[in-house]
Write a structure and sequence with these properties.
about 190 residues; alpha+beta; about 40% strand
């Protein structure tokens, strides 16, 4: 069973057992138009709440946006989401992110996850890999409120800067390490 299948099964089981309605309709995973609209909404929210992200966007070689990533678990857990890679304002590809985990955990949440690729080599790595496991390859800095206040386009020297925003729900811990990002083609 692949990570995507395992994570999807864990999420479906948990959400159906909990009767959780906080995440909305996730049946849009294969609809390019809906993915693009969700990406724009996630970016607008991030830029409105974190002006430093807008400044990074001006120098980014590409921006990978995963709106409404869903993470859920009860003993075993998973997370899954779909998004789009943007270059110079346009969508150039679609990607999915998935992860599975095991351990003491319970809860469910959704969040937006936005990655700013600051170096061409990092963006090339994403494009050339058959699947990028976060934590292997280009260096990533997860930007929290403290880092954001000191981050400028002249101090931004790392490969990729990641922002997690618009969190809903409750689950202990929120990490991206071990997540796998792969390119996919929506059906329509």
């Amino acid at each position: 069973m692949t990570i995507k299948q395992w994570a999807g099964m864990a999420l479906a089981t948990f959400l159906s057992l909990s009767g959780c309605q906080m995440f909305g309709d996730n049946a849009h995973y294969d609809d390019r138009g809906q993915i693009n609209r969700d990406v724009e909404t996630a970016l607008a929210h991030l830029y409105a709440t974190t002006p430093e992200a807008r400044a990074l966007a001006k120098n980014a070689k590409g921006i990978l946006v995963f709106p409404r990533v869903v993470k859920a678990g009860f003993i075993g857990g998973g997370q899954f989401g779909v998004g789009a890679l943007k270059k110079r304002g346009g969508t150039v590809g679609y990607y999915q992110i998935a992860a599975g985990s095991y351990g003491l955990q319970a809860g469910a949440q959704s969040f937006d996850y936005v990655m700013f690729f600051m170096k061409s080599s990092a963006l090339d790595y994403l494009s050339s890999s058959a699947g990028w496991e976060v934590g292997v390859g280009p260096s990533i800095v997860v930007v929290d409120a403290g880092v954001a206040r000191t981050l400028t386009t002249t101090t931004a020297k790392d490969d990729v800067y990641a922002f997690i925003s618009n969190q809903r729900g409750l689950m202990a811990g929120l990490g991206i390490q071990g997540s796998k990002i792969t390119q996919f083609m929506p059906d329509h």
